[in-house]
From TrEMBL:
<feature type="binding site">
    <location>
        <begin position="120"/>
        <end position="123"/>
    </location>
    <ligand>
        <name>NAD(+)</name>
    </ligand>
</feature>
<dbReference type="InterPro" id="IPR022664">
    <property type="entry name" value="DapB_N_CS"/>
</dbReference>
<keyword id="KW-0520">NAD</keyword>
<keyword id="KW-0521">NADP</keyword>
<dbReference type="GO" id="GO:0019877">
    <property type="term" value="P:diaminopimelate biosynthetic process"/>
</dbReference>
<feature type="binding site">
    <location>
        <position position="52"/>
    </location>
    <ligand>
        <name>NAD(+)</name>
    </ligand>
</feature>
<feature type="domain" description="Dihydrodipicolinate reductase C-terminal">
    <location>
        <begin position="126"/>
        <end position="261"/>
    </location>
</feature>
<feature type="domain" description="Dihydrodipicolinate reductase N-terminal">
    <location>
        <begin position="19"/>
        <end position="123"/>
    </location>
</feature>
<keyword id="KW-0560">Oxidoreductase</keyword>
<dbReference type="InterPro" id="IPR036291">
    <property type="entry name" value="NAD(P)-bd_dom_sf"/>
</dbReference>
<keyword id="KW-0220">Diaminopimelate biosynthesis</keyword>
<keyword id="KW-0028">Amino-acid biosynthesis</keyword>
<keyword id="KW-0963">Cytoplasm</keyword>
<feature type="binding site">
    <location>
        <position position="151"/>
    </location>
    <ligand>
        <name>(S)-2,3,4,5-tetrahydrodipicolinate</name>
    </ligand>
</feature>
<dbReference type="Pfam" id="PF05173">
    <property type="entry name" value="DapB_C"/>
</dbReference>
<feature type="binding site">
    <location>
        <begin position="25"/>
        <end position="30"/>
    </location>
    <ligand>
        <name>NAD(+)</name>
    </ligand>
</feature>
<protein>
    <recommendedName>
        <fullName>4-hydroxy-tetrahydrodipicolinate reductase</fullName>
        <ecNumber>1.17.1.8</ecNumber>
    </recommendedName>
</protein>
Length: 264
């Protein structure tokens, strides 16, 4: 693979109105799909494809205005730092962000007030709506649990989406003054009750055949509500990714999630 798409595409042929885009993690499951989506978009131009072992400088040398990052939680902060330093907007799908990392990025951006960074745990429109619906429903149900189900090659657990969903639900419960979900478990094998994210149990399934799926289970006396979203194909993330690529130049600073880009 060449690390710069401009190697194959003479500069003279490029239209100045196109947004030049670089993809980090270009050989990965998501990166491959993003490369296709950018190539298929009339208003975008793929100028750099970077994967592990390639020079990150390629995205700057190729003139990328926006970088899309689907790499790994352990390398994404270095990538974002590089892009901010080089005045390149970032659309980040890579997971693993906590409040400390987000605060660090916001601090870096103070020196570059024109640069935009969006960190989105999930670009799927259905997944974003599921998070919103779960947040809305949370205050009406004493019990809530999150179950995420993914392909077995996923490196992190629980998923970034599940962690964000649990945090949003927990915040809604706190705002409504709800006590912790009832749970009389006195004896369990380690892990049986899932991870505790701000009081919300989060369970992670890894299963061949799956792509990315999530359920939020809500319970009250005599009834349950199950909210479920399924990404059967990584194409499901592309409308959200492309929207973010087109918007980020107009959104300086740090944005978490693409909800505001969707008018939510
Ligand atoms: N926000 C969203 O909607 C979605 C987020 N994700 C997240 O995106 C990330 C990537 O997921 P996948 O594509 O499934 O993983 P993957 O393992 O298939 O791809 C990651 C790619 O990044 C490359 N890479 C590693 N270090 C690099 C570096 N320093 N510079 C450039 N490239 C580097 C790897 O060689 C690999 O090709 C994960 O954190 C995953 O959770 C995945 C799907 C949707
Ligand atoms: O690794 C994945 O596949 C996915 N990662 C994201 C996450 O951790 O939430 C988004 C989606 O669930 C797919």
């Amino acid at each position: 693979m060449t690390s710069s798409a401009t190697d194959q595409q003479p500069t003279a042929d490029r239209d100045a109105a196109l947004i030049p885009v670089g993809v980090l993690g270009a050989r990965g499951r998501m990166g491959t799909e993003v490369v296709k989506a950018v190539n298929d978009a009339d208003d975008l131009e793929l100028v750099a494809m970077v994967d592990d072992g390639d020079w990150l400088f390629n995205v700057a040398d190729a003139g990328a205005q926006v970088v899309v990052d689907f790499t790994r939680p352990d390398v994404v902060m270095d990538n974002i730092r590089f892009c901010i330093d080089n005045n390149i907007h970032c659309v980040v799908g890579t997971t693993g962000f906590d409040d400390v990392k987000l605060a660090t990025i916001a601090e870096w951006l103070e020196a570059k007030p024109d640069v935009g960074v969006v960190i989105a745990p999930n670009f799927g429109i259905g997944a974003i709506l599921l998070m919103r619906f779960a947040q809305e429903a949370a205050r009406f149900f004493p019990s809530v649990e999150v179950v995420e189900l993914h392909h077995p090659n996923k490196v992190d657990a629980p998923s970034g989406t599940a962690v964000r969903t649990a945090r949003l639900v927990a915040a809604a419960r706190r705002a409504a003054g709800l006590p912790p979900s009832p749970d009389a478990t006195a004896d369990s094998l380690p892990g049986a009750r899932g991870a505790d994210v701000e009081g919300v149990p989060v369970h992670a399934v890894r299963l061949s055949g799956l792509v990315a799926h999530q359920e939020v289970l809500l319970g009250a006396a005599g009834e349950t509500l199950t909210l479920r979203h399924d990404s059967f194909d990584r194409a499901s993330f592309m409308p959200g990714v492309l929207l973010a690529v087109r918007e980020i130049g107009r959104r300086p600073g740090l944005t978490v999630g693409i909800e505001s880009f969707l008018g939510l």
